[in-house]
Every structure is written in structure tokens, then in C-alpha cells.
TrEMBL record:
The START domain, residue ranges: 147-321
Listed name of the protein: START domain-containing protein
Pfam family, one: START
GO molecular function annotation: acetyl-CoA hydrolase activity; lipid binding
GO cellular component terms, semicolon-separated: cytosol
GO BP, one annotated term: acetyl-CoA metabolic process
Source species: Oncorhynchus mykiss
Organism lineage: Eukaryota, Metazoa, Chordata, Craniata, Vertebrata
Length: 321
């Protein structure tokens, strides 16, 4: 296991002892790296106290334990330099996995506590500004998906979930390889009226207005999740085919406001600022689908079902067909 030496003065400033120690006690701080992440590291610290008799008998008093988080202070152009660590013992595995759980809890708590009222995420839409909104819709998704420092949150044989966190930004990206052509996947994902056929998190989807072959406005209704209210969304979908070899197919979504779709009684109107799919061709009958979603407003606005579930249901549709 990797052990980092910590300056005792730094540890003493951050650790408040929970149990009694007396003048003359010898304090021993034991520090071990539990896990490293892209730009932070968690160090577990155990504090033991000895008096003369306890020192001779080698029977310390455990007076505190703590987890110290060290954040990498990057300057522009720097690359995160924390090396990856792994475990070699059963206790090391416990500490390694526990650090991942604590990081997820800290991340969720930070975004919930920093909640503040935001202006509406949706923007007015009409045919006079469709070109501008469509361009921005695609550009926002491309920039969001292209951000650096995506951190693996969960990786399995079929689905990989990554998280990107900034001061006021939390993004989730789900990746999965699909055994079909990129064009076929693009055709299905770009038509939201087909979504209820393979995604049980969609009650219905109606086409509100089609601006052209690349921009369409949809009204989506979703069932309640975990006992909450049913929700509905009004999305502008912008789709683009690759301009050259190697470019992905793009299906971008964002919330818009249209006068023909007022609030529906019994449904909570929800919004998403930036979400969608990038589809990369891997061959004639395989492609990689990346679903990216920007969480905003204290995680209350969500693109229908959780990202991983939506993409997983999409793959199941192909396995059954």
C-alpha cells in the first residue's frame, strides 16, 4: 500500500481529538492513502496516545480517526499528477471502496447545500431564432462532452459512468458499446417519438413543431420517480450527421418555451440545460454511444430517467430485437 508522510503540524491543525489525552502523553499519528482521484487524494489518519506505562506495554489508546482530503491546486495547463493506487489486502480494499463512497456523498452534499434559486433554464423558441438555438444546442453538448478530467464513477462490462465536477457544475456521462451501426443508433435516438417503445421512463412523446430536418420541438411526459410528481419537458432536439470521417453523430437536447405547450395540470414542468448523445462508429455493426447530461439547480432538473438507465434500456432494445 502507498503511505504518504504528512507534516505533523498540518495534521494537528485539522484534527480535533475526541477523547482525552493528558500532558506528557506521546501522540502517534498513523497516515495511509485510502484512494486517489483525478484532482484529490483521501488520507486516513489514526491518532493513538501513550503514557509511560502504556508505551512500555505497547497498549495505546485510540483517541481519534479522521479522513483528510488534499485537493490538487492546478494552474492552467497542468495535468493531474496523483498516481493511481490499488489495494493488496482485505483491509486495503475496504478503505479503497469506502473512500469512493465518501467522495460521492461529499459531491452530492456540496451541490445540494449550494442550492440557489436560478433563472429558468428554458429559452423562448420560434422559427426566427431556430438557427441560432440549434447551433448553440449542438455546440454546448460538444463542448460539455469534450471536457477533460472525467472521473470514472462506475464501470461494468456493459456500462461505464463518468462524472465531471466543477465549482457550480456537475455532469454525468454514460458510455456503452452498442451492436448496431452508428447510423441506425442515430436514427432511433434522434426520433423521440420512438423513445416510449424502449424506455419505460417515458409515458409519451409528442412532436410539437418541426422547424426543418435537423431541429424539432417535442413535449415529453414522464412517470413519477420514487413517489414524486409526474414530470413533463419541452425539448428542442438538434441532430447533426458527421461532417467528416471520425466525427460523431450528434443528438443535442435543451429545454425551450413554446406558447403552444402550456403547463399541464398534474405534471411538474422540468428543465434541462444541456443533454444528449454522441455516437461514434466502431465498425459496420457496432458503435459507441455517449450520453452526457449537465445537472443544474441542485439536481432537481433531470433528463427524464437516470442517464445510465436510459442508455441501458436502449441497448436492451437491440438485444431483444
Amino acid at each position: 500500500s502507498s503511505v504518504w508522510l504528512l507534516p505533523l503540524s498540518e495534521v494537528c491543525r485539522h484534527v480535533s481529538l475526541q477523547r482525552a489525552s493528558s500532558v506528557g502523553d506521546r501522540l502517534v499519528f498513523k497516515a495511509v492513502v485510502n484512494n486517489t482521484f483525478n484532482n484529490s487524494i483521501e488520507v486516513g489518519v489514526r491518532v493513538e496516545a501513550y503514557n509511560c506505562e502504556e508505551w512500555t506495554a505497547n497498549k495505546p489508546r485510540h483517541i481519534n480517526s479522521a479522513f483528510l482530503i488534499y485537493q490538487l491546486a492546478n494552474t492552467p495547463g497542468d495535468v493531474p499528477a496523483f498516481p493511481q493506487v490499488t489495494y493488496t489486502t482485505q483491509d486495503g480494499e475496504r478503505r479503497y471502496l469506502s473512500a469512493i463512497v465518501r467522495k460521492r456523498i461529499r459531491m452530492a452534499r456540496k451541490h445540494i447545500l449550494s442550492c440557489k434559486e436560478e433563472a429558468p433554464l428554458s429559452v423562448p423558441w420560434d422559427k426566427s431564432n431556430q438557427v441560432y438555438l440549434g447551433y448553440n444546442n449542438v455546440a454546448a453538448l460538444t463542448v460539455l462532452a469534450g471536457k477533460q478530467d472525467w472521473e470514472a464513477s462506475s464501470i461494468s462490462d456493459r456500462v461505464a459512468v463518468y462524472v465531471h465536477e466543477e465549482v457550480e457544475l456537475l455532469c454525468v456521462q454514460v458510455q456503452m458499446e452498442v451492436m448496431t451501426s452508428a447510423l441506425h443508433a442515430f436514427t432511433l435516438l434522434a426520433d423521440l417519438t420512438l423513445r416510449p417503445l424502449w424506455d419505460n421512463h417515458y409515458l409519451s412523446c409528442e412532436e410539437v413543431e418541426r422547424a426543418d430536418e435537423e431541429e424539432t420541438v417535442y413535449h415529453i411526459k414522464c412517470p413519477p420517480i420514487n413517489g414524486g410528481k409526474s414530470r413533463d419537458f419541452v425539448f428542442l432536439l438538434s441532430k447533426r450527421q458527421p461532417c467528416k470521417d471520425g466525427d460523431p453523430y450528434v443528438v443535442a437536447l435543451r429545454s425551450v418555451t413554446v406558447t403552444t405547450v402550456p403547463h399541464v395540470e398534474g405534471f411538474l414542468r422540468s428543465e434541462a440545460k444541456c443533454a444528449g448523445f454522441l455516437i461514434h462508429s466502431l465498425g459496420l455493426n457496432s458503435c459507441k454511444v455517449r450520453q452526457t447530461h449537465q445537472h443544474t439547480d441542485c439536481l432537481r432538473h433531470s433528463l427524464g430517467p437516470p442517464c445510465s438507465l436510459a442508455l441501458y434500456d436502449f441497448v436492451l432494445a437491440f438485444s431483444v430485437a
